[in-house]
Fold these 2 entries.
Entry 1:
Amino acid sequence: MKVAKFGGSSVANAEQLKKVANIIQSDADRKIIVVSAPGKRNSDDIKVTDLLIDLGEAYRLGQSHEQELQRVVDRFEAILEELHLSKDVLHDIQTRVRKIFNDGNDLATKLDAIKAIGEDSLAKILSEYLVSLGMHARYVNPKEAGLILSDQPGSAQILDESFKLIHQLTKHDEIMVIPGFFGYTKEGKLVTFSRGGSDITGSIVAAGVKADLYENFTDVDSVYCVNPQIVKNPKEITSLTYKEMRELSYAGFSVFHAEALIPAFKERIPVCIKNTNNPGAKGTMIVNEKAETNQAVVGIASDTGFVSLYVSKYLMNREIGFGRRLLNILEDEGISFEHTPSGIDDLSVIIRENQLTEEKEAIVINRINKELKPDTVYIDRRLALIMIVGEGMHSFVGTAAKATKAFEEADVNLEMINQGSSEVSMMFGIKEEGVKRAVQSLYRVFFEEN
Amino acid sequence: MKVAKFGGSSVANAEQLKKVANIIQSDADRKIIVVSAPGKRNSDDIKVTDLLIDLGEAYRLGQSHEQELQRVVDRFEAILEELHLSKDVLHDIQTRVRKIFNDGNDLATKLDAIKAIGEDSLAKILSEYLVSLGMHARYVNPKEAGLILSDQPGSAQILDESFKLIHQLTKHDEIMVIPGFFGYTKEGKLVTFSRGGSDITGSIVAAGVKADLYENFTDVDSVYCVNPQIVKNPKEITSLTYKEMRELSYAGFSVFHAEALIPAFKERIPVCIKNTNNPGAKGTMIVNEKAETNQAVVGIASDTGFVSLYVSKYLMNREIGFGRRLLNILEDEGISFEHTPSGIDDLSVIIRENQLTEEKEAIVINRINKELKPDTVYIDRRLALIMIVGEGMHSFVGTAAKATKAFEEADVNLEMINQGSSEVSMMFGIKEEGVKRAVQSLYRVFFEEN
């Protein structure tokens, strides 16, 4: 049994839904379908979920919201017309919105219910469409599917008991179309995951039914080994391990959130990234383990927006608890850190820039000076991190040499190298302005000069 | 005014003391002389301090200790005879030992008093010898010099008020010979620094009198850029900064303990390492700042006996406080750590092997599993750290590339690279068996191929 999840661009309009139907029809194992809300049809378009957020916002402000609602209805109406389906769903949406705005729930719960309308309506439409094509399909509400979530509107978490319930889906024989992004609390209240939550639903359902494969349909043929905005027509990755995916997605790989995959990872369900617009392409497989490779590096990722907090104190390494007390201050101030490279008498803490506003900076520096009495403390902003990732990396003596040579050839100074903590990656810190040059040079060295 | 400190090999016998006297006589600025106890005269010899420790040990065990005392007396007698000095000192030693063993002090204090006899007697002998050569010299007891220490026998610390007192020495005109290694508590009790404490005395006195130069006489012409036991006839370092010295001495540079230099560093007193056996050689200057250099790396150091504690947990970097809690456990168990390289979901802690006995290891692993619930935790033993050090390092784009190439050429795999936390060093972790090969290759790349 396969679980196939179709993202926003795959269900953006009737034309896309026809492709989706073809994909479902072409493989009898595709039994469980998870869908997003319709995404953008072109770059100027607005996603249905954003239209729904606007609708909720208008309500929150006490403004008229007829126009916002109409825009949502229009999107679905265009789809229904082209697919020659009944327009009952449109009426449902309008009734439902009215009901939500008039029920006694708190605002956060109301807004979650509004946001979920996109996925929910699309799932209904797709199942009707499949039936109209003669397939044995039906819409399955997340409550029926067994998605029981914690009572945290907008950022709900799956509860462990769900998986056993979800497994019941394997008893059914028809194609089940489940809307992504939301579920229900034990008390029966609709709550959503965080944004992008359809991926989470897909991964949870795949884990629950112990699928043979979790297919994640998107609009690219596969995952590229480097950001295509930095390197033109980069190589495709045919196979990745979970660990590699996780490290790559940490720094700028935006195929999907690594977190979304945790449930599938835990059950060791293989994941395949495929293209709705080119379903014949092989796609990228994400697996638990892969065969030995003669390739040290599978991907290069980069991300900007980091700062480094540098603290030095003579004989720091003799002071038991120094590092811990520094991290304590950060924790106290609600700052999570990324890395803590340390020297003999120096410690740097790498933090995402958005975690350290200028106000926070002043507080943190002040506390460090007062509580740790360092010789030096300063902040370096505008740093970029570049990661090269590959399970095969550690069996090649020359990987570090190759990588550092690439930076030298790009004339980019290394502010930081962090290798050895992770078994599948090597991390480099540089000034933001060198990031494009450095990534291009790394691509040349690892993917073109072989 | 210069403060000159002579180490154990420089005062091992009469022949050496003649060299010392020449050195003192040759420069009128050498006003304050700090001496160690006589060291080894040849590789089979025993240092006087070790003889004194044996003496104390015999006393502690309630055994006869005449023989141990006699060996101490014999060492000094040989010196006195060859220098044609009165033997009063020998009688003093015997009386003093008897007095110490019979006083009412606790054992630790008695043992400190015994250990201090080596430096104290040698200082008396040297001052008499200088006088016999016609110099205006005298022995100055550390109490008179102003060395007031905390009441921690065997590991006493200098008290801040000492420096003002020590500064009074500048008022005197004669050559003052001060025994190293010990001082007195406020209550007048003799206490010693930790082993190697003559270096500490020298540095403290140099800081107190705000010397123009602190000369540290030893038995090498200068500091070498790499361990001569690994690379034959390596290049000498003519000038080092405090920071460079500190990083080098952390990993296997045994010229002296970096801690000993702190008082001098704080007062920015330049330090010169010189050779008693070849005082004409330029030596190595250790300074606060040095001129711009076209040399990225000044030295390579290496040390073995490290372990790495590896902890991984999926989504670790989202868990605020994870790293802090790990360090907390180590602190709780009295383990100080050296470095904490971290990946996305991984954290390694580098610890000196002697800090982590197998018993401690079991406790620590158990606590980590219970309190942090990681996915993986394991210990890697038998690691070596190699540091390349140089203030100029960061202005050279290619330093990391050069270094990693050296490891590749030596066919040594890099377990860890840590660069960027310290501004003057780059650290590499490898398996112990590769250390010689790797250091030789680094030497070739940084010191021979230029």
Entry 2:
Amino acid sequence: MRYWDDIAIGDRNAFGHYQVTRDEVLDFARRYDPQPFHLSDEEAAKTHFGRLAASGWHTTAMTMAMLVANMQAGEPQAGLGAAGIDELRWLKPVYPGDVLRCETVVEDTRPSSSRPDMGSTRTRMTVFNQDDVRVMSFVAIGLWRRRPAEGAPAVPS
Amino acid sequence: MRYWDDIAIGDRNAFGHYQVTRDEVLDFARRYDPQPFHLSDEEAAKTHFGRLAASGWHTTAMTMAMLVANMQAGEPQAGLGAAGIDELRWLKPVYPGDVLRCETVVEDTRPSSSRPDMGSTRTRMTVFNQDDVRVMSFVAIGLWRRRPAEGAPAVPS
């Protein structure tokens, strides 16, 4: 099990391979972001997108899909989810046909001041397309359990 | 048309009525965030969620749906989209059966230093549930066109 104590500033990871399809871009936009430039090439051509582009919130969702697949493929983690996100930036449009991938680096780790059994991390996520262009970046604030002290009972007696 | 020049610090808005359904929570989670606590009540009961809860990225997507519906119902806006998001925090779980709504307040406005025809805004978005509990908050960085100078040609001659 990977605990907060096993995570160090500078730890890096690279994973993910997400093929962005036109159908999925349209499905997401119809339900959650029905702005004209997310629904048609013609309308997108009138904007800086140039052609049909994915909703920025679709890009965050696709990134989460890559992150969860990577988590579930590896060592079990004592992660308690994310408290939030800082500095989310949509740097370049994401288009149908793009293939996305992720790189992460741990920028900070802190023990909790109020909960001695917990800690937090700040991890920079960068998403690239098939041309190695950075399309999105954010910092995820992760919450983790700390490794139980040696000899501590696994279950309170 | 509402331009950057028409937006002032302190401007407030309230809108949205989004019914969170179990089917939609499961659909989103299966595709984008298939962690056990977003897929079953039984697994969620083992976590601080207590019962099936929406992916945080689903909550951002539902919020975008409310925002776009509100934009499309009102005066046309000279908005150019969002450059990014700061200080996104998932404050409380969102459950099937919840009804979400939004409140916004403009926290800052700045003319662009490089593009005299553009400006940016920082708008705090707060999402509440039916019990007026804050479930999510973030700051959206919006990009806008500025109002063309009086007498300026609408189309370059």
